[in-house]
Each structure stands twice: as C-alpha cells, then as structure tokens.
Amino acid sequence: MQTVLLPLADPAAEPRAEALLSAGELVALPTETVYGLAGDSTLGGAVAAIFEAKGRPRFNPLICHVSGLDMAERIAVFDDLARSLAARFWPGPLTLVLPAAAASPVHPLAMAGLSTVALRMPRGVVARLAGRLGRPIVAPSANPSGRVTGTSAEAVARGLSGRIPLILDGGPSPVGIESTILRPEAGRLVLLRAGALPRAAIEAATGRAVEGPEAGAAIAAPGGLASHYAPAGRVRLGATSVEPGEFVVAFGPKRPEGLERAAAIVNLSPRGDLKEAAANLFAALSAFDSADVERIAVAPIPEEGLGEAINDRLRRAAAPR
Asked: Same domain for 182 and 102?
C-alpha cells in the first residue's frame, strides 16, 4: 500500500480523510496531544484494521473521539460529575472512562470486551471529522504498538508507512504527550493514566482528590501496558552521570557528570520547563530510536505537574520487554 502524506492546510485534506474514514479505511491525523491512527469506531473492520496496523494487543481498549457532548451521551452514561468534567475540560486532553450506553454504536472490539468506553473530545481535525461523519472516531497513537509515540507526520510515516493510505501533516504536536485518562465513579475520581492534563488542575476544578493510578489493576484504559513507548535501546532513568557511549536525554540547566562522554545529547527543556519537556519527550526518544543506539540515559525529572505524566511514559519506556 502506498501512503500519501498531505498537509492539513491543503483544501483536499479533510474531504479525502472523511471519504477514507467513511469507507472503513484508516487515516493518521494530528491532535493537540499526539498523532492518532483514526478509524470509524462503529465499523468492526476499521477497528480491527487499527489493531492490525499497530500490532496492538486486542485486550487494550481504544479511545473514542467525539465532536461534542451530544455525541458522547449517545455512547456512554454520564452522571453529574462526568458531565461537569466534560464541561470544564472539553475540548482538551482529558479522556473519561464511563459505562457504555445500552444502545452505544461503538463496536465491542474498540472496548476490548469491557463494559466501559473511553471518550475524549479533542481540538481540531479529529473532532471536525467526527462531526461530519456523525459517528465517534477511534484514534490510538499513530505508531507501532509499544514503540515511541509519533508527534510529527514524519515520525508517523517512519512507523506506519505502507500500512495506511493517508497521513495528514499538521506539524509538530503542540502538547506532545497523550491525554489524561480519568474514571469518575460514585463521586470518586480515579486516575487510570497520567497525561497532558495535570492531576492538580483536575483537583482544583472539582474540589476532589484524584486517586490512583491503581497499581496492579487489570487494564481498563489505553496506555496501560507496563512496557510501552519504547525505543530500540535500553533506557536508564534518573541518570546523574553519563557512562561512555550513552545517548543522553537531559532536562534543565544542570549538566550530568561526565556529559563529555555522551555519544549525543538532547535536552527536553534547557530552562527546566515541564510543559516544554512534555512537548519534546517523544521527539527526543524518537531521535534515539535506532538499532545502533544501545543505551539511553535520562536525567531526573520532577514528579510534580506534567512531570507525573512524563515520568510515567519514561518508566514504561524503560520497563523490561
């Protein structure tokens, strides 16, 4: 299959993507968080094609992207807390895991056999296309399963070229890290995946503590695999010194000891800004995702704010495979 890369600004881009999605084909699309591999959530063939193209385990559910709350309420059961979260944070990088509605049109394969469905209203082209189709769009990150997430059209093409017909190029992802996944239930807020919306922002808006993540729980949301986001080489976290020949992911102005021994260096944010670091994280890992890069050392990154999500992705990238 030939993969076409088309600028999002091209007038033909969105109509072409809409036609492909309507026909049950897949399209890689930019969102504010990362690039997604999009398909019609109501078509079993399209959902199955996403799992096949990514090599994704079928017990790992997908996020359904909606054009608004009206569409979301046809898919899932919202209580007052869930509705208030959607009103406050949609469109944006928050995914809600809710009970699936009895007449939900989402194909069961997208929910991986669960009784819940993951929903998000993104900014931009994915929400527009969902509105035109009148159906939610499933769009997991546009990369082979378990590998580094794509935050540019070029990165997507390296992983999926030849597997999908179209990639829309919207430039680098402005946020650069996936959505926060939250399960509101019985007045509780349970964090299933740290992400681009910090825990503190949710707590400030709701006046409720955010619990979790739940250690050792069964996978109830996307991105729950222990090993994920991984480059080819071994990743060493919390590196305050550099071993000879290591490729270094630095953070902030402080230089790790022995930095002159590094094979190459990329700094997520020379000024120590976590928002900038999140935007640059996957691009940095992708730059070192090569068979000749055996060892990657990552400097310590604070856990507060977006640091929780950054460290979550790094721990999964460093996990045994």
From this structure: yes
Question: Which of 211, 246, 273 represents a domain boundary (last residue)?
Answer: 211
3-class SS at 92? Answer: coil
- Residue 9 structural domain: 4-211
Neighbour count for residue 235 (Cβ, 10 Å): 22
pLDDT for 146: 78
pLDDT tens, position by position, 200-221:
999 999 999 999 876 554 445 5
Domains: count for the chain:
2
Position 226 in a domain: no
DSSP string over 216-262: TPPP-STT--SS-SB-SSEEE-S-SB--TT-EEEE-SSPPPBTGGG-
**Residue stretches of the chain with pLDDT short of 70:** 58-59, 214-229, 321
Domain closes at, from 211, 246, 271: 211
313: left (phi over 0), alpha (psi -120 to 50) or beta: alpha
CATH of the domain at 278: 3.40.50.11030
pLDDT in tens, 128-173: 999 999 999 999 999 988 788 999 999 999 999 999 999 999 999 9
Burial class (CB in 10 A: 0-12, 13-18, 19+), 274: buried
Residue 218 has a pLDDT of 47
Q: How far is the C-alpha of 312 from the C-alpha of 180, rounded, in Å?
A: 11
Relative orientation angle of helices 274-287 and 153-160, to the nearest 10 degrees: 40
